[in-house]
Amino acid sequence: MSDVIRRKIDRAEAAQQDGAPGADRGWRLALARAARNRLGLDVEFRRMSVRRASLAEVLELPPDRALLALLDGPEAGLGLLMLSAPVLSAFIEVQTIGRVSPQPAPGRKPTRTDAAMVAGLIDAALVEMEHILAEEADLVWAGGFRYASHLEDARPLGLLLEDDAYRVLVAEVALAGGVKSGEVILALPAQGRGRRPAVDASAVAALAGPQFTSALGAQVMQVDCTLLAVLGRVSLPLSRVMALAAGEVLPLPAAALDAVSLETLDGRRLAAGKLGQNRGMRAVKLAQGAAQMAPPQRKPDAAAPAPAANPAQPEVWRAAV
Fold this sequence. Notes:
The structure is a single chain. This protein has helices at residues 2-13, 22-39, 55-58, 85-96, 112-132, 139-142, 157-160, 201-206, 210-221, 238-242, and strands at 43-53, 67-72, 78-83, 146-151, 166-175, 180-189, 228-230, 233-237, 260-263, 269-278, 281-288, 316-320. It is of the alpha+beta class. The chain has a 6-stranded antiparallel beta sheet. A 4-stranded antiparallel beta sheet has the order 7-9-10-11, with no helix packed on it. Strands 8-12 form a two-stranded antiparallel ribbon. β9 (260-263) and β10 (269-278) form a beta hairpin. α2 crosses α5 (112-132). The two termini are 32 Å apart.
């Protein structure tokens, strides 16, 4: 029962994501705002996709001569941000010559200096995305990451990143009105390790409403219940029970195929019926439903003292068949 309630609460805590933009829109806004506020550069997203990928698939994503920035995340999780050569070149040019040059990006690998010049921008974008997702479920996997270092080559990625599933955001961006364009790829562990989004009080209040009660009732009514079809009962001394042997026959004087009792494991009688068959299987046809049965007798108060055992009377073992 507690698991059912926990799942309901988790859904309420993430209720803000219904109809919300999620990490895809959050990353668009975050990177665009960070570039505008820190560099005075306009970044336009022309295309955006979000998908899950394995580590092997992530290792095939880095564009040629891209900056590979490792990201530190919650619980020692590692992410990866890839800036294609044109995008990195535009970020560097704005900081060095004050504008984005229409000339192609230089044909070289990114250096440590290049990484240092864009590290602040990367952190600003990641922080901004965390703020945007403060009340959305995607925060649990997209929040809490910061720039850690850069790699000069993609080969060590297979050893550094965990062999797990990743959420990959692939964006085609245009910079400075289309002077340069290229890909920005963000890959983060799909297993959320960050903090949960802030809970909307109205969503929590909805848990106590009729909708939650109805949903909880539906879950409870699907739980399996074991019933016993009792044909008859016999009482034997414990010594006789211990002496039973294979092949021995026990008479059931009160047994009747048309007087079957349907009972719970604790002996509560729910219905009456008769034994029969249905499609070659044994079956019990109900003659009287649980709603029509007389309520069970009230058990004696647990506080009342139990009657003293009579040592002269043998112990009796009761069996239901």
